[in-house]
Amino acid sequence: MRLLVDRALPTADPLTPAGTRILAAASTLFYEQGIRTVGVDAIAAAADVTKKTLYDRFGSKDRLIAAYLEHRNRVWHEFLDEQLASRAPATPEDVILALFAALTDWLAGSRNGCGFINASVELAAPDHPAMPVIVGQKQWMRSEFEAQARLAGLADPGELADRLLLLHEGALVSFRVAAMTNATEVAARAAADLLATWPRLS
Amino acid sequence: MRLLVDRALPTADPLTPAGTRILAAASTLFYEQGIRTVGVDAIAAAADVTKKTLYDRFGSKDRLIAAYLEHRNRVWHEFLDEQLASRAPATPEDVILALFAALTDWLAGSRNGCGFINASVELAAPDHPAMPVIVGQKQWMRSEFEAQARLAGLADPGELADRLLLLHEGALVSFRVAAMTNATEVAARAAADLLATWPRLS
DNA sequence: CGGTAACCACACCGGTCGGTATACTGTCAG
DNA sequence: CTGACAGTATACCGACCGGTGTGGTTACCG
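^ Those are the sequences you sent over. The predicted structure of the assembly is below.
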């Protein structure tokens, strides 16, 4: 069993060595400390690069932010591919449960929750160039849930996908905001029960 | 039926007329545009007040932020009281469902989701004076769910409360981040099904 | 009458932020 | 040989930000 919905990730255009360091530094700093808190000077310093180089490569902070989220999205999907490969789910239901199990590993060692949710709140402006990446990431999760549910022959896959997404996002945000350290385990149990009791197409 | 868990809201210390206007302006601006985006000058101008007055009343922007969240928490609880009064739930289960139904009304007309989640992300620093208010609000929700579940004679009220909180927070965040306009209705249906199938103490 | 609290107007501060300008160095392909 | 490209170093900019200081005006209250 594998993921069904096309990720349609624009293949990362090749970066210069300095560009790679900048993106790496921006990724950790933006996630650890927040997008607004981290200035371009701090990123340039952490990447051991001049601000000039940073602007030559990325043009503006906003575009660097967008690059950061696209990069994080790629890392997220690579992570899911590894998780799916090692857990080797046998049924579509197990794929869904593996996605929830993966969440625990994904958040291990971090305390800031979901970088996409955080970015959405920090950027606020709906027309920010990074917004499509954020909404896209969430909607990919939903459509993957729906595709697996449909493949499993479960009734009303749309409604089920909506509910799974709520559990998924709820875990991410409760982990961070409500200081609920076991949020991902609770979500995994809730998802398992939901799938077990959900009606099937006759 | 009524809410069970003490709100323990520090009674709002009386404000001067200008202080009231400042808090009102800060509340709408902070929620609509974000805490970091809105400067003290903008708040003072919106409240038709000098910056001097703002600092005489609230001391610093951070303390104004804390006051904003405490105020929003009071408004939230007053809103819940009204909702409970008008929906007049007959059982503890109905109280829980009324809390979910209330969410739809609470988010009506806004597109920024939960002010507490947003503030938690924007402030980031764990030692910010406003953090206890944020975590407290989420934990109050959880303990209210748990108290109602216990009163209803439902098994494992702690686990049930955790799952209800995930749905609750998931709805708030999916509404904003995933552009899921019907998130609160989905959460309400999920909560209803969850309560209907949850085991009871024998 | 005198004091005090609540305001106004306005000017000012140091710091930080995103972003730009100038000038120079190394490397590599046509 | 010669551009083009990637990079360094450093200085600078205007705008905005949170916050302070001075000085003056009401109005109420003991």
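Residues 39-41, 51-52, 55, 60-61 of chain B lie near DNA strand D (CB under 10 Å from a C1'). The longest helix of chain B spans residues 61-87.

Shout if you want it in another format.
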